[in-house]
Amino acid sequence: MHRIISLVIRWVPRTVLQRVAGPVLGLVGLFYQGRRVNCPICQRWFRSFLPYGRRRSRGNALCPGCLSLERHRLIWLYLKEQTSFFSRQLKVLHIAPELCFIRPFEQQHGSGYVTADLESPWAKVKMDIQHMPFEDNVFDVVLCNHVLEHVENDRLALQEIRRVLRPGGFAVLQVPFYNPVPDKTVEDLPVTDAAGRAKHYGQADHLRRYGKDYIQRIAGAGMHAREIPFANELGPESCARHGLVPTEKIYIGVK
Fold it and tell me: How many CB atoms lie within 10 A of CB 195?
């Protein structure tokens, strides 16, 4: 299963995967029924989550019920336990929306929930994150999960996120980190091909490899930046039950 999933996500276009993965993995999930792990998003229990990864598959990562990964489940728990996201209707901008989030977020926030992306078939608004077609001070929350590493000018994108946030609003700004994490973000290398980007940045369509200075990038866009060791705060029992990475942090920018 590790090898099959790795090959599929490496070679099948993401837009195709987004359309067909749900029904296919729903069938696979029948063979993973159990009571060892629980997805807090779809509330289903399994004996384990599915493996996931382009090259080095991670075990116990992908929920066959809603297609959530570790980072999605961590974000969900953070929003539920540390914010008012699920207690009132908000204006929410979700950039590059993940399928596992769309239905519950729409149910919670109605027409105030806006999905946006350049390519995603689930996006209501087609846009470039570096030049967003929204007025200033519109959204209470912006969700931007594993997007900035694909963007040519991530600093400009962060400034745009700040611009469209209302005063007091916050953005969830997750990016991938690859061990060993460099002290300073690696970018602007003379790399022009997919193999070179994969080698230096971790994936063929990434434009940088984020370092320990990422929190300063958020602050540099004019937001109050927070680095929260939320998985660690949840504790080992919760991490095991929900299939979380204990060392993963939540990155927040507040306007």
Answer: 9
Domain positions in the chain are: 2-68, 71-254
Q: What is the dihedral of CA 214, 217, 219, 221, to 10 degrees?
A: -150
Report residue 169 as tokens. Answer: 């609003």
Does residue 206 contact residue 175 with C-beta atoms inside 8 Å? Answer: no
Per-residue pLDDT reduced to its tens digit, 30-44:
566 778 999 999 999
The CATH superfamily assigned to 71-254 is Vaccinia Virus protein VP39 (3.40.50.150)
Q: Name the 3-class secondary structure at 52.
A: strand
> Residue 155 is encoded by which pair of tokens?
């600093």
- C-alpha to C-alpha distances, 223 to 139, 158, 201, nearest whole angstrom: 14, 9, 26
To the question of pTM greater than 0.70 for the whole model, the response is yes
Q: Cβ(53)–Cβ(3) under 8 Å? A: no
Report the candidate in 94, 84, 249, 216 with the shortest Cα–Cα distance to residue 164. Answer: 94
